[in-house]
Amino acid sequence: MLLSQLYLKRLHYYQNRDEYTARVGQPPPPFDPTKRPKYWRDLYPIAQGLPEMEYKMLATGPAGLPIRHPQTGRPYLRTVAMWADEAAAVNLPTGATNAPGEDVPPVQVPLEPLGETQYLDWPADGDTLAERMALVVVRDRRDELMRPATWRLREQQLLERIAEKLGVTI
Fold it and tell me: Whole-model pTM?
């Protein structure tokens, strides 16, 4: 499963300033190059009168790429606290080339909590094309248990010979 399928459902996402204007009916606030770009907003904390909100986000390094958990070696989620007014605001770049702040990795999109059997992983050969192109995928241990074993031809032939010697029909 793609990580984007875990994006927190109540958030409002915007690809760019034009989409924000079209959906909200007014232009977004001016881009602040001293802050990281932010393409989503969460109005829930303000509506509930909360001063801040905690989010689960993909742990990334300074370049915005996922980092490995020191024990598991897999990508992981970290908890990030954000003030309510910051959560409700966007910081959409203008799209200008070489403009200050345009080349900074964006604020990660908050995610729904992982299910008990779900975990984050790196893409692998057996994944769909979309998953192989992603930086991180969500896996489910239940799917792995249900997935039939795949045998190479040589292994299949060996099992058939063993079954034949034992008089077992397969």
Answer: 0.76
